Fold this sequence. Notes:
The structure holds two protein chains of two kinds.
Chain A: H1 7-18, H2 26-52, H3 60-73, H4 82-104, H5 109-129, E1 139-140, H6 160-183, H7 185-195, H8 197-202, H9 207-233, E2 235-236, H10 243-256, H11 261-281, H12 285-299, H13 307-315
Antiparallel strand pairs in A: 1-2
Helix pairs in contact in A: 2-6, 2-9, 2-10, 2-11, 3-4, 3-5, 3-9, 4-9, 7-9, 10-11, 11-12
Chain B: H1 3-34, H2 41-59, H3 62-83, H4 93-115, E1 131-133, E2 139-141, H5 142-164, H6 166-176, H7 178-183, H8 188-214, H9 220-235, H10 240-260, H11 265-279
Antiparallel strand pairs in B: 1-2
Amino acid sequence: MNAHASLLPKLIAVAIIACVPLSGESFYIEIVGKVLVMAIFAMSLDLLVGFTGLVSFGHAAYFGIAAYAVALLSPQYDAASLWVVLPAAVALSALAAFVIGLFVLRTKGIYFIMVTLAFAQMAYFIFHDTPLGGGSDGMYLNNKPSAAIFGWEPFELTNEVHLFYFILAMMVLVYLFLARLLQSPFGRVLVGIKSNEHRMQSLGYFTFRYKLGAFTLAGALGGLAGFLYAVLFGFVTPELLSWHESGNVLLMVILGGMGNLAGAVAGAFAFEAMREIFADITKYWQLLMGSVIVAVVLFLPGGLAGVPGRIKRALQGGRPNE
Amino acid sequence: MDFASFLIQTLNSLQYGLLLFLVASGLTLVFGIMGIINLAHGSFYMVGAYLAFVLSSATGSLVMAIVLGIPLALVFGAILEWALFSHLYKRDHLEQVLLTYGLILIFEQLRSLLVGDDVHGVAIPAFLDASIQLTEVMSYPVYRLAISAVCVALAVALYYVIQRTRLGMMIRAGNDDRSMVESLGINIDMIYRVVFALGVALAALAGMLAAPISSVFPNMGSQVLIISFVIVVIGGIGSVWGALVAALIVGFADTFGKVLIPELSGIVVYVVMAVVLLWRPEGILKKG
């Protein structure tokens, strides 16, 4: 990995994103903020799908649990402290992922895909059918958490520009954290598990623990994304945990090319941009979106991330890989 | 719970489970034989239900709608297999998930374009529109019994085709080892097309049969899809008989869950699935 060579484009991308609030348009600030939240979500899933080889089809559960946690933990007429609800929401998602991971990591392949889905569905129905979180109507987060520390407030989440930069900072931090983690011995073991779990076991690694660690961490980071989503929109519904959301985030990861953190971010941008653009041109955006997805799979194996390589090969006159 | 309501719920469980079996049997065959995860399988159920609505409004009879609808579904399935799914066999599961997810979006949007987003009712055929009196206040609709009967007949026919005919032999062989079947000179691509079309038709038929009971509404496919996946996984991927057992388990768990613990009814089925998979991580009957 030539991490340093590709540093400049990433810095430029972050700098461009950081300029969005200068437009002063609430619409753009909110929508780019949402994309950044989804980028965190996609990176957290990429840790499982792209690096550890665990295709989770229920990742929206951890997103939704943290989102509900903010809404449920915040007092009705007062703002909760950011420094309490943020760790609490993330910890709840991590705990849920840990417990679910103990069960689902016993299965492999297609079964793993389906069992993660089943657990996510359970979480979905708990919020959908019980009065805990307002049932199918969801609930409002009336007051965004306050960042005050002993009366001093470094920034205000009620201010859309402050909130935008808070989300951007979180996304950069998650990126740096995961990039560093993947270089660490722990991350190396995860990548080893993806390419050959049996070999890792015969090398003496207790792979279950590593997979559980990755699953819990991915749940926690997915929870961070869910927390930010709830704060950004001030509203949570059971649909945040639905399998459509799990499918969407999986799409972002695949579109960006799995096992590539910057790709996951790009995938989130591509997905949301497609959705916005298609929704703008026509109310039949799903038809266009679906057709693009089908075409990508049929004609572009390897996702959008494979496109530069294909162009390069085509220019060199070689045949593109099957 | 007194005996009459217990009987009613048992019959409902059977009917629901058997109907789910129609959807899940096609899904598990496509899964087991072709190794394809087909998220769009629920859409075939939806297509069936809408076919029932459109054709029965046009012809005035559900029976006519089913007679016309099944060949349409078979052709539809064969064309889909030829145009799209045949390109997916050697692909990664993730790409299959991706493509079939795209198909769901396309089918739902086309449905919205062609028929609209309203909920529609479909009339029960007149000769089945009756109820059997169980007690003074409770009765059971004949139509639901008819659904169960049709499903049982189809399950028996499926058993006969798979276990007793030459086609079934080739299907079972394809389930075990594709390249061996090919080297014996059997046209495996044709077998795949037949199985896929059959799966589409079974799911569509389930949708047609269910249309008068559940009515016809947007996103009805995704509900059935998820529950069918649960059945396929509980039963063991590729096992038609596992799917039958699992479908009945799910039918009973869901129906009695709704009666006994209404608040948590949504999660009962998934709890059952988790328990079964902890007990047998590869399903009740792995392949059969």
